Every structure is written in structure tokens, then in C-alpha cells.
Amino acid sequence: MTATEGHSVPDLPLPIFQISQKAVRYLLYDIDTVTWLRRNHNILGVFIGSLPQSPQQNVFLGLPLELQPEEATLLVEKDLAFITDDLQNHKSALLSPPAGLNDYKANLRREGFATAKAIVKQKQQRTEDALQRLSLRRAEPDTADKADGKDDNDESLFSAPQQQAPEPTPLTLVPYTSTPTTSYPPVPAPTKQSSLPMPEVSASSYALFKHLHSLGYFMSPGLRFGCQFSVYPGDPLRFHSHFLATSAEWDEEMDLLDLIGGGRLGTGVKKGWLIGGAVKNGNGHGKDDAPSTDVQSGEIGKSESSHVRTFCVEWAGM
Fold first, then answer.
1. Are 153 and 142 in contact (CB under 8 A)?
2. Residue 94 phi/psi, 5° resolution?
3. DSSP class of 4
4. Which of 273, 274, 277, 275 is nearest to 308 (CA)?
5. Which of 78, 176, 230, 290 makes an SS bond possible with 112, Cβ 3.0 to 4.6 Å?
6. Which residues are catalytic?
């Protein structure tokens, strides 16, 4: 990575790791890469990893970041990333021990000892502060007794014995173990020569996604609202979504109840229900007027963002 204006820039094109089990997923493991894509390219994705300190909850999640197929396709098309098989890369790289593996492990141990030392020092400081506050509180009654003329040697039959401040228990230094989120290093990073085909996405949904993305919008999955994308005018950490976007083919027939239901749903959650698709070339009639969109080969013709039309439906009632 290189540093530009205080921010780290990943080496481009960056790898997007494809995980193929029951369903194909596109993951990112490096937090610097995730931050850079979010800040500079409006790529959100969805965190799917559990937090080490709270593994039993699923409200706040962490790395890895799962990309939508449209997001992965857009990054590959812009030559910012390439798709690679994470499992196959690890199998081929682990056939022989990577160079510098011992140095990498030693560095992790040093970091673990440094972290443990800092935590032990912090605990000792808290203990000393607590004992100091305790001694100050115990000194206050003694000062009041001397002001009343009482002697410290006069002990009452029913007075409680004075308690000595407990000695601080020495803490043993146990090194912390850290699990890096990425394997590169020590495993050699994958190269573009090992790239896989582009994700399979619908031409209509990708055309709408690319059109809205070119206008500067942020998009996250819209499953919670019954749509394809939740569209934000800026980073979702600062803004609420403005639109619930659903794609459609240009000559696709739509049920009137779907239009009414979508409009009422969007209005009910204080958003606009947005529907859009790629406009056919020519006059918009006939099967031969369809836009030249080849997502699989990565070639999006002249029909991309400039030939996509969107309509916003809002429910006004009676």
C-alpha cells in the first residue's frame, strides 16, 4: 500500500476473493482496502464477520466485507480489482512454507507481548489509583477525631479493627495472540493472471446500479425494504436513504398493484420508490433496439448511465 494525503491506497488492481460453496460470495478482508473503497468509490458492501469480543451477537459485525455482485462487477470493469479463488490460492501457496514465515510469526509474538505489557501497565495504574483514593477516604475520619480531642490510642471495646490496605497482586505477563484478517503476507498475494470471470448479474439491475453510482449515490442491499437497493445521497453513517430502487427491463410489463404497493411502501418509510432500467436504442420499440450490455465479458456499451431512465413513485392518498 502507498500513502496519499494521510490515507493508505491499496495496490491496484486489488483482489476480490470469491468463496464458492452453496452460493458464490465476493469478500474483502483488509480494513484499509474496505475504508479506501468506501471513501473514494462509494462501495459499501455488508460486514458478515462476528466480533471477537462479542461473538454471540449479530447486531454489530466486522470483517470480512461481502460485496454485492453489482459492486464487484463495477470494480472489475473499472480495472480497480479482479476476482480470484481464495481457496485455490491458499492451497497452492501452502504446498511449501512461504519465505519469511518465521520472521512474520516472531513479529506477531512481539506485538502480542507489547499489547500484554500495555494492558498490565494499565491495570496496575488503575489499582494504584484505587488504593490512593481508599487511603484518602480512611484518612478523613482520623483528621476529624483529632479535631475533637480524641486520642488514637483510646480504643473502644466495640470498635472495629483497623484494616490494612491490601497489597497489589503482581500480574503475570501473558502474551496476547492476534489473528490477522489477511494472509498476505506471509502468503504471496494473488496476481491478476489468476483472475476468474466476472460475476453473474442481471443486465437491468447492473445498469440501474451503475447509473445511480455514477451520480454519486451509495447503495446497500434493500432486502429489509422489499427492494433491490437502498439508495443514500451520501455515506449511510451520515444520511438516511432517500430511495428504494428496483430495476426492470424497458419493455417489461408491471402489475398496477406492484406500482401502488411500491409507492405506498416507500411513502410509509419516508422514502421514494424508484424504478429504472436501460432505455432501448432508437425509438424504443422492437426487439432489435435493446442496448448492447454484455456484463459477462465486462463490456458495457454506450447504453450505460446516459441511457438509463428512472421514475420515482410516491403515494399521495386521496
1. no
2. -90, 5
3. E
4. 277
5. 176
6. 232, 240, 271
Angle, CA 278 vertex, CA 231 and CA 15 arms, to 5°: 60
DSSP 8-state class, residue 164: P
Q: Identify which of 266, 207, 277 has the alpha carbon closest to the alpha carbon of residue 242.
A: 266
Q: What is the pLDDT of residues 112-145, one digit of tens each?
A: 888 888 888 888 899 888 888 888 888 776 665 5
Query: Residues 6 or more apart from 179 whose CB is under 8 A from it?
Result: 52
Per residue, the 3-state secondary structure of 63-108, as one string, reads EEEEECHHHHHHHHHCCCEEEEEHHHHHHHHCCCCCCCHHHHHHHH
What does the DSSP assignment read for 9-37? EPPSSEEEEEEESSSEEEEE--HHHHHHH
Query: What is the CA angle 44-47-51, rounded to 5?
Result: 145
The Cα 233–Cα 217 span in angstroms is 5
Q: Give the distance from CA 50 to its chain's centroid.
A: 11
CA 164 from centroid of its chain's CA atoms:
51
Cα–Cα distance between 149 and 164 in angstroms, integer?
24
Answer yes or no: pTM beyond 0.85.
no
